Amino acid sequence: MSARGGAHLRRPLPREGLVPRHRAPPARRLRGLERDEGPARRPGPHGAGVHRRRGQPAARDAEGDPAENPRDPRRVGAPVTRALCLLIVALTPSVASAQAPTLESLLARFAALPGLEARFVEEKRVALLAVPVRSEGQIWFSEDRVMRRVTAPEASAALIAEGRLRMRQGERVEEIEIGDNPVLRGFVDSFRAVLAGDRASLERYYRATLTPGEGEAWELRLVPRDAALRRFLREITMRGDGVTIHEMRMVEVSGDETRTTFSAVNTNRRFTPAEARRIFRVE
Fold first, then answer.
1. What percent of the chain has pLDDT over 70?
2. What is the pTM of this model?
3. Which residue from 3, 48, 66, 125 lies 20 to 30 Å from 89 (Cα-Cα)?
4. Radius of gyration of the chain (CA)
5. Which CATH superfamily is domain 101-279 in?
């Protein structure tokens, strides 16, 4: 074949994309060219100048793929991030438990109690006395019945059941119909209606205001509605946590104040028939 006839076979190749073998550019320089040339031309796995078809994903460097490089910070930090997220979720209280109590929800919880037993210490501050009168004893509640026994300084007992107040002081026993005395009924229902969750009876005699505290803590303020009751009683304040009453404070119009603190409170007390007959009685 003549030189002229084979000239078309020796057509010079385009210089674009050729890399001399003795001066192969470093990988760092190739990555720099990748940014300069735009998305249409990217360095391939075998060198620079390799064309990429439209729609074909580019091959990643070993350093740029966290799934292929176990030392990549993005891969190392992922388990730590997940662990922190799980820890935060575990330590975050549920929305239901963080809700502040309302009067309706609090009385509903009291209404669901099977019974209650607690010890109490009562201090009555009288304007004419320099030292408060102190007494202590136990109290029980079950099925709309309240039993209060004073053990010191002198023994006494009072039972509220079936619309009656039955009391014993020393050898003397007295029984009073609660419905015949609105003032007495108001005093009685201030405590009984709360333990029974009886909102209708409570609001018949009092304007009830519940102030939520931290967590499940609360303060219930009772202001008398009845005119006869307002002549004797200014307000009653109860403080508690959940269904546990810690303190009850009663302020009279005269300025006298009675503060009762409760301890060893058992809000899940269940009474057998024999226990109920023995505890809820005054003889």
1. 65
2. 0.64
3. 66
4. 42
5. Lipoprotein localisation LolA/LolB/LppX (2.50.20.10)
- CB burial string 75-96: b at 16+ within 10 A, e below: eeeeeeeeeeeeeeeeeeeeee
**Per-residue pLDDT at 214 exceeds 60:** yes
Q: What percent of the chain has pLDDT over 90?
A: 54
**Residue 60 C-beta-side C-alpha neighbours within 13 Å:** 8
Contact 194, 104 (CB under 8 A): no
Cβ contacts of 235 within 8 Å, gap of 6 or more: 221, 222, 223, 224, 250, 251
Distance in Å from the first CA to the final CA of the chain: 139
Q: Quote the tokens at residue 269.
A: 């007390």
Pick from 259, 218, 262, 258: nearest CA to 240: 218
The residue among 182, 226, 219, 180 whose CA lies nearest residue 203 is 226
Q: Phi, psi at residue 17, to the nearest 5°? A: 90, -10
Q: Which residues contact 277 (CB under 8 A, 6 or more apart)?
A: none
Structural domain spans, the chain: 25-91, 101-279
Task: Look at residue 44 and give its three-state secondary structure.
Answer: strand
